[in-house]
Amino acid sequence: LTALATSKESLIYGKGELNGGELKKQLINTLCSSRWSHQYVIHLTSMFRDIPLSVEELQFVVEKVLRMFPKLDLQEIPPLVYQLLLLSAKGCKKNILEGLISFFNHMDQKQKEEQRDSESRDLEEATVPLDQLRHVEGTVILHIVLAINLDRDLGK
């Protein structure tokens, strides 16, 4: 749809007229401004790999995907990271890596706080089990290492 829209010089949209590029930008903006169900995040991220995006549009998409991380189950993180790393071939490599580091730093901090609180209050279960978090972090690190082997710019 976006490729078709971009190829048109003028399209009627709502009460006005837009060129194809403006309509594509509007579609991406609307899609990224909408609420995404956690079950579609991986598929939507994969879809954006197939769409030609400007730097601004790519940044908007990456920010949206990174904002979705806290809403996902831990098991959904590695496949999403994989899709994000594939998307990084278009750009925003630094933003993606910084977003991943920030997310996992937050998760580690949350885990430490829960562990400290559970010792003082004697809680039974942590929200995020430490072994599961470490397993997910290890899988994500593996994805990053493999992606860097394929795209050396990612590691710079």
Would you kindly provide a written description of the structure presented here, covering whatever features stand out?
The protein is mainly alpha-helical and 156 residues long. Helices cover 67% and strands 4% of the residues. It has 7 helices and 2 strands, in the order αββαααααα. A two-stranded antiparallel sheet has the order 1-2. Strand 1 and strand 2 form a beta hairpin. Helix 3 packs parallel to helix 5. The chain is globular, with a radius of gyration of 19 Å. It starts with a helix and ends in a 6-residue tail after the last helix. The model has no long low-confidence stretch (mean pLDDT 83).
Cα radius of gyration in angstroms:
19 Å
Structural class comes to mainly alpha
Strand order of the largest sheet: 1-2
Largest sheet properties:
2 strands, antiparallel
Beta-strand proportion = under 5%
